[in-house]
Amino acid sequence: MMSRQWFLKQTYLTKKQGHVWIVVSRDGTLGYFKFVTPEQWYYSGPMVANELISAALAKQLGFPVADLQETSVTGVDGVSRRGIVSLSVRAREMLPWQEADAAVFQDPVHHVKDTDLLAALIVFDVWITNLDRSLGANLILYRHHPAESYSWYLIDHGNCLYGSPRKWERGRPSAPLWDRISTSRYTPKGLEDLQTSWSKLEPMIAKIEALTEADIDQALDCASDEILKSTERAFIRNLLLDRQKRLRRMFTDWLSP
Ligand SMILES: Nc1ncnc2c1ncn2[C@@H]1O[C@H](COP(=O)(O)OP(=O)(O)O)[C@@H](O)[C@H]1O
Ligand SMILES: [Mg+2]
């Protein structure tokens, strides 16, 4: 993808785990620029690397995911920050999943496209230890006309994979709690039935099992040594390979009566 220059439009969110600015490029494309400061490490970890690697894996598995671009943006204070832009799709209507109309939650199959793939999203999220999809905040719906059903894409994998030091205070990666699945932790509202259907989940389990070490290394290569230390890279690699082996068992344990 051609790399664009981005300009600050509006500072949007300031949180313990990072900053989000709305940015715009010369051609009018909107994006969300995310960056962290070294002082935020405990809450943010290698946020940009978490994002890039997760998005690469999502793409390998066929999930629509926001395009990401590493870049620098200058703030109102004239200081340039290094971070990542998550590109927004252009559409007449766009909203986070949890803000959708009740009708969408009641009958997602008739209001949203590709619901088989959406059902399988929980498999990906469990694999990469993503706890940030439970409300559907990081799932974006969009459409070009009110009569259309919604298309969707994934955003915000900042706390996936290595996440941050804080993430592992709940339990080390080897702790049983990371293998225990629950709809309340992983499932956007309204997808409970779809995401507990074995026939909808199994093909994605098989797809993740079929990824080779080379596939996983290719995703890891999206993060340079500047943004990911070798110990953190090894941590993520182990996490992915380890959970890949246990993924099927996690789901059969969860769904067996
Ligand atoms: N690519 C995108 N398309 C549409 N909205 C986005 C995109 N990236 C971010 N946003 C919006 O900005 C919010 C914050 O971005 P997010 O990446 O989720 O950061 P945070 O780590 O603060 O949750 C999102 O909840 C969403 O509303
Ligand atoms: Mg978010």
Structure in words:
- Strand 4 (68-74) and strand 5 form a beta hairpin.
- This protein has one domain (6-255).
- The model has no long low-confidence stretch (mean pLDDT 96).
- The chain is globular and about 60 Å long.
- It has 257 residues and is of the alpha+beta class.
- It is built from ten helices and eight strands.
- It has helices at residues 41-44, 47-60, 102-106, 108-111, 115-119, 121-127, 183-186, 198-209, 213-220, 230-255; strands spanning 6-15, 18-25, 30-35, 68-74, 80-87, 93-96, 139-143, 151-154.
- Magnesium ion binds at residues 132, 137-138, 156.
* Order of helical and strand elements: EEEHHEEEHHHHEEHHHH
Give the total of beta strands: 8
Structural class: alpha+beta
Number of helices: 10
* Residue share in β-strands: 15-25%
Work out the oligomeric state of the chains in this entry.
single chain
Outline type:
globular
Radius of gyration: 18 Å
Q: End-to-end span in angstroms?
A: 47 Å
What's the number of domains?
1
- Tell me the helix content: 25-40%
Strand order within the widest beta sheet: 1-2-3-5-4
What characterizes the major β-sheet?
Answer: 5 strands, antiparallel
The molecules bound to the chains, other than polymers, are: adenosine-5'-diphosphate, magnesium ion
The chain-level mean pLDDT equals 96
